[in-house]
Amino acid sequence: MIQPYRVLIVDDHRHAREAMRCIVAEDPMFEVVAEGCSGPEAVRLTEQWMPDLILMDIQMKEMDGLETTKRIKDKFPYVKIVIVTVSDDALHLFDAFKKGASGYLIKNLNPSSWLDYLRGVVLDELPLSRDFAYLILRELTQQQGAPHSEAPITAREKEILSWVATGSSNREIADRLFISEHTVKNHLKNILHKLHLNNRVQLARYAIENRIIPK
Description:
The chain is built from ten helices and five strands. By secondary structure, it is an alpha/beta fold. The chain has two domains: 5-122, Rossmann fold, CATH 3.40.50; 130-209, Winged helix-like DNA-binding domain superfamily/Winged helix DNA-binding domain (Arc Repressor Mutant, subunit A), CATH 1.10.10.10. Strand 4 (80-85), helix 4 and strand 5 (103-106) form a beta-alpha-beta unit. Helix 2 packs parallel to helix 3. 34% of the residues are buried.
């Protein structure tokens, strides 16, 4: 039997934690192992329980979700963190990705959408939205002296990486390159390992910084 993914829920409102716990409990793929109500408590609980996934409220008084995410990722880079917020402000959410978040959820989304999204996060199958791909490109083109370096990856991996930067899903990449979706997933695992990156947002940023774009 496959062990469920261990989940830590962090929110300074009890009702919000209860709601998230009820949603996650609907899928046997996940198991809520702990709940916290502040940033410092989230750091402590992460060390204690070593969760696979953290649902992190972005607005907390003592230490907000962004700073908490950064501190946890600095100490425990393996863990996947999904920011939970009432706002869909792109710049705010982009900052969460820069801190190391693997995804985000809007609190008023249909609960069934949450589970599909969380499965995509833990299985590394979540495509970068095209809005965020555009946002990354826009921010980087406004910066001076963006680094340009040759990637230690193969030509095929560069090709796949270039399509990740456009927001293409694994299925779309597979169809474009006439390969299986499973092959795309394995290529992405290799690329993440080679470049010491954690998620598709970081891959997209790397591709754009190094001018790896579809031909």
